[in-house]
Amino acid sequence: MKKITFLICTVIFMGMGLNLVYADSAQDIYKIKNRGVLVAGVKTDMEKFGYKDPKTDNIDGFEIDIARAIAKKIFGDANKLELIPVTTQSREYLLYSGKLDIIAATFTITTQREQFYNFSPPYYTDGLALMVRKDSNIKSLKTLNGKSIGTVYGTTSRAVLREVAEQSSMKFKFFSFGAYSEIKSALASSAVDCFVADKSILSQYIDDSMMILDDTLSAENYGIASLKGDTQLGEVVNEVINELKSSGELSKLAKKWNLE
Ligand code: GLU
Q1: Is 107 touching ligand 1 by the criterion CB < 6 Å?
Q2: Where in the chain is the domain with CATH 3.40.190.10?
Q3: What is the pLDDT of residue 26?
Q4: pLDDT-based confidence at residue 8 (cuts at 50, 70, 90)
Q5: Which option is the CATH number for 2-123+223-256: 3.40.190.10, 3.90.850.10, 2.50.20.10, 3.40.50.300?
Q6: Which protein residue has the closest C-alpha to ligand 1 atom 10?
Q7: Could you give the C-alpha distances from 189 to 135, 152, 176, 185, 186, in angstroms and in order?
Q8: What percent of the chain is predicted at pLDDT more than 90?
Q9: Is the CB of 101 under 6 A from ligand 1?
Q10: Is residue 87 in contact with ligand 1, taking CB distance under 6 Å?
Q11: pTM value?
Q12: Strand order in 225-227's β-sheet?
């Protein structure tokens, strides 16, 4: 009798264990549903992509519309979305520490990042470019040898430039900054010779004394990222991006934000 009771208990416990394992792997989407909102890390200083209007305090943009489409898919309501402002430097930490469900913030899909995150198919392709002072003698990538280059922590820029340097036997002096506005000041005051970033970023910092060179150094494919363990969420996000693409809605949104 004792043996039978022990056996039954073991089976029940094993069942509970299996349930827990199952619950764990499906937990990501339930966690979001139970909370009642999708939490998205977005830019607030990137016009057209994610921008906070100082007059209204509203955050709007192409990536906000995409995040709204994901919230709509999960809840049937695009407004069940909480927007958390992120920077280039903070976005990965915030996702990793569980403060965000997704990053929708000009985040390039790279093989290195794919080790840690699920990435949606690309929803926008930008290119890494170079901004210099008009009065400098740098007129193209070829004349950049030996020059000092400002990049921001947490971007793809430096890795791309390193490859360019290797392929073309050039040497660059890198300087890292905490924010793009700091590189702009450094370029203006000649503390660096070149500001390297995605074209969409450079276009926000350009003024009459500066120019963006014609060379495009890389294709920066922006994707929505979620944590690798959040498998279901990753699948839902992929579905949304694929649906937006196949229905033509993604190009409509890009047009709405003058991104085509
Ligand atoms: N797309 C680049 C990256 O993911 C830069 C974008 C940014 O700084 O937000 O590293």
Answers
A1: yes
A2: 2-123+223-256, 127-220
A3: 60
A4: low
A5: 3.40.190.10
A6: 155
A7: 12, 17, 16, 6, 5
A8: 82
A9: no
A10: no
A11: 0.88
A12: 81-85, 38-42, 102-104, 225-227, 117-119
